[in-house]
Amino acid sequence: MPASYLTAVQKEDQEVNPLFRFFGARLAQAKNGQATLVLPVSLSLCQGGGLLAGGIMATIADEAMAHALMSVLEPHQNCVTVEMNIRYLRAAHPENVSVLTATARVVKKGAHMAAMSADILDDQNHLLAVAGATFSVLIPPR
Question: What is the number of domains present in the chain?
Fold first, then answer.
């Protein structure tokens, strides 16, 4: 993934990642195999019971892990999620939680696959979820 993408996506007014704009997420940092993604919690991200939807947490974990991996890829490479798991440890209610932070890291990177991990914390540092994933490193044909 080109370094120019990682620089552009971290800007306050970024337009290179439509998903982040849609959710209101911001990539705070992505370097050296680690990434931090911040998501303001709002009612529009909640399920019918009024709690933050689990799929939203899974999405920010996945995106944080992808960007952590992108930070160590060669400019001509990209990545996709092969499989992912997540354990929800605590619910998030928008009356008590205003921001989520997903921190991710590369556990092990090979030539074609990478093992990743992510933690999601609320603004009081409560651990809400832990995730793990395997990503495929995409190398375009020459």
Answer: 1
**Amino acid symbol at 73:** L
Helices (H), 17-125: 18-23, 54-70
Q: What is the pLDDT of residues 63-105, one digit of tens each?
A: 999 999 999 999 999 999 999 999 999 999 998 999 999 999 9
pTM flag (> 0.85): yes
Amino acid at 77: Q
> What is the Cα–Cα distance from 114 to 134, expressed in whole angstroms?
6
List the CATH number of the domain containing 48. 3.10.129.10
Strand ranges (DSSP E) for 22-142?
Answer: 26-31, 34-40, 78-88, 99-109, 113-122, 127-138
Tokens matching residue 18: 């439509």
